[in-house]
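so my prof wants the structure for this chain in the C-alpha cells format not the other one, which i didnt know existed until like an hour ago. anyway here's the sequence
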Amino acid sequence: MLITSSDSYPMMGHHPNLVFLLYIITRLGNLTYAQTPFCSNGGVYSTNSSYNNNLKHILSSLPSNIIATTSGFYNVTVGKDRDKVYALSLCRRDLASKDCYDCINSATKAAMEKCPNQKEAILWGAGSICMLRYSNRDIFGSMEVKPSFSMPNPNNISTDLDKFNKTLHGLVGSLVEKASLGSDVKFGAGSVNNSVYALVQCTPDISQDDCSVCLRGALDEVSNCCGGKEGGRFFRPSCFVWFELFKFYDDQFGGYDASLSPPLLGNSPTEPAVTSPPTSVKGNKSSTSQTVIIIIVPILGLVTLLAIGCAILLYRRSRQGLHDNDRNKSLESLQFDLRMIKEATDDFSDANKLGQGGFGSVYKGRLPNGQEIAVKRLSGHSNQGEEQFMNEILLVAKLQHRNLVSLLGFCSEASERLLIYEFLGNGSLDHFIFDPIKHIELNWELRYKIICGIARGMLYLHEDSKHRVIHRDLKASNVLLDENMSPKISDFGMARMFVMDQSEANTCRHMGTYGYMAPEYALHGRFSVKSDVFSFGVLILELVSGKKNSWWDSSEDLVHLPSYTWKNWREGTALNLIDSTLDREGSTSCEIMRCIHIGLLCVQENVEQRPAMNSVVLMLTSHSMTLPVPSRPAFFMYNSTVAGSNSKETESEQSAATDGTTYFFRT
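here's what i got, hopefully its the right format
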C-alpha cells in the first residue's frame, strides 16, 4: 500500500507482542496501493513510444533483479537520448527476499496504473518497506529530498518527552554515522535499553556526505511531524528515518543492531604464533647471530615503515579520488544549461526582473516542465574564483531545511554565473512589514509564525547542519515567504562555514547591512554565531513594531530601533513599540511583550550575554521559561557626514560604510 498519511499504522496501544504481530501481518499481507503515488510533471509519453517500451522492460525485470543483489538496491538504464529511462529500486535492508520481491512487484504494477504516461514517478510500497523510482533524467548518485512524506504513530508519548527526544536524537545520530559510512549498504538499526528502536537507510548510490545530510534533515523533519508521538517515519527519495517503541525491524534477515560494537581486530585463530629467537647460543655462532640480527632487524623495520607509508599514501589517493568523483557527480546533477535558463527568463528580460542587490540581479523564470524558479545573476566584478564558487554551491545545496530557500542548481558558462533557487511567490518579508498596505495582512499569529520559523532556520545553520554556517547578512529582505507565509532564509552569498567547534573569526572586509550588523563585526571585523543572533534580534523588533531598524523623526534625528526599544522598555512604555495594527491590550499582548524581551536579549552589547539560537528557540516555544533581564543594546546611530551630527553624546568609535554614510557607535 502506498502511504501518504498515518492510516497505515495498525492499532498500536501498549501491547508490543500484538503490535509486532500486526506489523508482520501488514507487511506480508496484500501489497496494494490505495493512495495516489507521486507522479511528476516531468513530461508524458505516448502509449506506443520507445520510452513506454523501455519503461515496461525495466519494470518487468526489477523484482527479479533486486533480489539477486545482496544490498536490496538495484538501478538500471534502458534506451537512448530522449527515450532513455533511469530506474532504481530499494528494499528495507532487513527484508527477506520474498518480501522484497512482492513489494517491488506490486509497486511496478501500481506505477503503470497510477501514473499512466508519466515519465517520472516515485512510490513507497507495502507500509513503506520498499521504494520504486523512475525518470527520464539521470537520478543516480545525487541526493534529492523532494517529494517527501511523513507518517506519525497515532499514539502520544506517555513518558518524559524531553528525555525521550534526547534519547531518540542520540540513537538516530549514532545510526546516521553508521549508515553514512556504508558503501554497498547505507543502513543502520538499533535501540537504546530496549525501549526506543530506530532504523535509517540511504540509497547506496549517494555519497557518504550526502547520506549524512539527507538523514539529518529527515531527522529534523521527524521532529516536526512526529514530535510527542510513540513512533514516526519520514521518507525522502534518497533516505528515510523510522522510529518506534517496539522492535519493528528483523535481525535475522540481514539487519543488525547498532547498539552492538564491531569485534576488535586481532589475530585469527589459525594465525601462527610469533616466537622469539633463541637467546642462549655459544661461541662464534652467538656473535654471528647477534651481528646478523643487528643488521637485519633495522632493515626489516625500514622496509616495514616504507610499506606502511606507501599503503597510507595509496589509501589517501584512493579516498581523494572517490571524494573527487562524488564531488563531480554532485556538481553534474546541479548544473543547468545556459540556453535553458535564458529561455526560462526570456533572456533576463526586465519584465521578469524581481530585484537587484549588491551581488547581482534576480529574475523569475519557468522551466520547460512548468516549474517556476528564481535565477540570481551574479555581477561580473565578483572576485570569487571558480573553485571557490563550485565549493560554495555544494555547501549551499546540502543545506536542507524547511526554513531555508532550496538551491536547485547553478550555471557557469562563458562569463555568466547563475544560481537557480526555488521560486517563492510572496516575495521577501520587507515587502510586507514595511508596506503601508500589505503590513495589515500580517496579524500577530503570522508574525509569530515567521519569527519562530526564522529562529528554527538559524538554529539549523548554527547547530544542526553538518557544518556550522554563519549567515552574516540576516535581514528582512533576505527572508522569503512561501504560499503559506512560512519564512525561508535566503542569500548565502556572504555566509561563512565553520567547523563545529569553531566559535568566531575575523575579517578585514566588512560585508553585510548596517542596522542589522553587530557592533563587534562592524567595528572590528569579528563575527560569530552571536553576530547572527544580533541580526535576528533586530528582525524581531521590526516584526513587532512594523518599523525599520532606523528612521528619521520629526526633529530630523535618526532613531535607532534597538535604542528606541530599550528606552521605552526602561520607562515602562514598551506597549508604544507594538505596531498599531496589532491588539496592544488583547490576549496576545503578553506574547508580543515576551518577543520584545527576547529581541532585547539578542541585541545586547555584550556578545557573551546574547543567547545562542538554541536558547532563543526554547524561549519562543516555552512560555513558562523565565527570561533573564536584558542589558542595554549597542547604541549607535549614523549620519551622512561627521560634521553637523545631531548627537549630543561623544562618539568613541566610527566605521565608514561603502555608500559614504558614517556610522557612530556609542559605548
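also thought this was worth mentioning. Residues 6-140 form a domain with the Killer Toxin P4; Chain A fold (CATH 3.30.430.20).
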